[in-house]
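Put briefly, the fold is written as integer tokens. The lines below illustrate.
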Amino acid sequence: MGIETDIGFCFGAGKNETFLRSINDKYGFFKNIIALEHPRYIMQYQSNSKQQYIDKYLTAFNQV
């Protein structure tokens, strides 16, 4: 299909990550999964530290 499957990004580093990893372990969609905090969580609970999360996102996206 022409889709790159080396890295998959998961938005949500809790239940979302656990669920995606369990599916990936079973079906092997991605070689590696990078979990990132959900944007809503960042804005709702960590807004004072949002620049750190932006930097984390940019670092993760530059791995592609």
Observations:
- The chain is about 50% helix and 15% strand.
- The chain has one domain: 7-61.
